[in-house]
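pinned: reference chain
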Amino acid sequence: QLQASGGGLVQAGGSLRLSCGVSGRIFSRTAMGWFRQAPGKEREFVAVINWSAISTYYADSVEGRFTISRDNAKNTVYLQMNSLKPEDTAVYYCAASRTVGLVSELADYDYWGQGTQVTVSS
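pinned: its structure tokens
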């Protein structure tokens, strides 16, 4: 129901754009978020965008480098990642939340994609 893609191997300072296709039944009226999980670490919040795409919220670690966006006509959410660092290496997950507001807690998300690997080499 959520299908993330766009991951890969990139050098530090490079860019990647992740995409997440979502079934219409889920995409409607949900906030969409991106999370990531590095080896041996807990899954952490990256960014979220509300249903109307008017509001966004980012983790401090990616603020100014990553941009979340959505195309409601295509039921797709994106994560543009610029100025990538080795510490951005992780499996990235998209998720959908029916909770009102810009939520950043894992427990607030109802649906999860399968993840896509991002590896940043130094």
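why pinned: The CA atoms of residues 44 and 84 lie 17 Å apart. The two ends are 34 Å apart (CA to CA).
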